Amino acid sequence: MTNTGSTSRPAAAAGTFAIGGDRPVARLGYGTMRLPTGTFTGPVRDPEAGIAVLRRAVELGVNHIDTASFYRRGDVVANELVRRALAPYPDDLVIATKVGPLLGPDGYPSQQATPGQLRGLVEDNLRELGVDHLDLVYLRVGGRSAPGGEPVAERFAALAELREEGLIRHLGVSNVDAAQLGEARTVAPVAAVQNAHHVHAAADAGLLAECTRSGIAFVPFFPLGGGLDPLDPGRLEKAAGRHGATVQQIALAALLAASPVMLPIPGTGSLAHLEENVAAAAIRLTPEDVASLAG
Ligand SMILES: NC(=O)c1ccc[n+]([C@@H]2O[C@H](COP(=O)([O-])OP(=O)(O)OC[C@H]3O[C@@H](n4cnc5c(N)ncnc54)[C@H](OP(=O)(O)O)[C@@H]3O)[C@@H](O)[C@H]2O)c1
């Protein structure tokens, strides 16, 4: 990691991290899941507003965008917004996507793809994003519950084959425990782990330590408590007051401080929230802040 605090690229104010050793990104990234809809069951959002958010993110120095073909609601497809907003893509932009879940007739993930179905899902992402290879593809395993319990090697090997063919540059795993990360690494190099995590969540310390030791990016999803486990504002307000920041900014700053391999990807469909989240990269927490976060 390098510290390259810059006012012209505020997303890089917490430094950069080279995904897979060769794709440097500003540590504060962006996730597209909130572009098609703000909540899991909410109405479809305006695609033009989503395009404006994506373009502003890149202007602010965000060059790590997390997406998926299954981020869609009605006619609004996150990958297509990324393409419309940003293609032809800047050379330094890393677009990460994930495959694994299959959508049921109601439009929600219903079952896991078989190894043989993964090629088609990768091809969907290539087509929607309008690229000839994908920078980073995660195998997303499990359902909505905590990681663990299922084998990953066969499916990861199917993605490793596509990597050998040049369709994928780097591979990652999502929603995994340390054993599943170890299993995947017996098949092919793992550049990134993407798991649910935020400032109050009990991190899988062993998994994070292994990522930090091995230079594997740890990409926390739901970094603002957007899932079932919300943030506790009461534990963030004192630090927020000291920095003149919002509790969401402190939640992101705490993640960035936790490990140099931590790359948060807060999701938003709001320009104001995007600006706020990116500005969090410049916040340096003090030991007093860290003590107050512990509650
Ligand atoms: N691998 C996986 O299984 C998985 C699962 C879920 C998500 N993800 C990825 O992780 C990314 C982040 O997760 P997420 O977007 O679900 O949740 P999140 O980042 O924890 O929270 C997003 C929610 O917080 C709101 N928000 C954003 N910035 C805010 C701010 N500054 N102040 C107040 N509210 C704010 C957003 O509303 P507005 O849109 O109205 O701002 C949205 O409702 C996703 O976008 C996706 O790329 C991966």
Short descriptors:
295 residues, TIM Barrel, binds NADP nicotinamide-adenine-dinucleotide phosphate, alpha/beta, single chain, two-stranded antiparallel sheet, 7-stranded parallel sheet, 18% strand
Total number of distinct structural domains: 1
Total number of helices:
10
> Ligands bound here?
NADP nicotinamide-adenine-dinucleotide phosphate
Number of strands: 13
Helix content: 25-40%
What portion of the residues fall into strands of 2 or more residues? 15-25%
Characterize the biggest β-sheet: 7 strands, parallel
What general outline do the C-alpha atoms trace?
Answer: globular
Distance N to C terminus: 29 Å
Strand order of the largest sheet: 3-4-7-10-11-12-13
Structural class: alpha/beta
SSE sequence, one letter per element: EEEHEEEHEEEHEHEHEHEHHHH
Mind telling me the C-alpha Rg?
Answer: 18 Å
Low-confidence stretches: 1-5
CATH topology annotation: TIM Barrel
**What is the CATH homology-level superfamily?**
NADP-dependent oxidoreductase domain
Q: What is the CATH C-level name?
A: Alpha Beta
CATH architecture level-2 label: Alpha-Beta Barrel
Structure, described:
- By secondary structure, the chain is α/β, with parallel strands linked by helices.
- The chain has one domain (10-293): TIM Barrel (Alpha-Beta Barrel).
- The protein contains 10 helices and 13 strands.
- It has helices at 47-59, 78-86, 118-129, 153-164, 178-185, 205-214, 237-243, 247-258, 271-279, 287-293; strands at residues 16-19, 23-26, 30-31, 64-66, 72-73, 76-77, 94-99, 101-103, 109-112, 134-140, 168-174, 192-196, 217-221.
- The chain has a 7-stranded parallel β-sheet. It has a two-stranded antiparallel ribbon with strand order 1-2. It has a two-stranded antiparallel ribbon with strand order 5-6.
- Strand 10, helix 4 (153-164) and strand 11 (168-174) form a beta-alpha-beta unit.
- Helix 1 (47-59) packs across helix 2 and helix 1 packs parallel to helix 9 (271-279).
- It is globular and about 55 Å long.
- Residues 1-5 have low confidence and may be disordered.
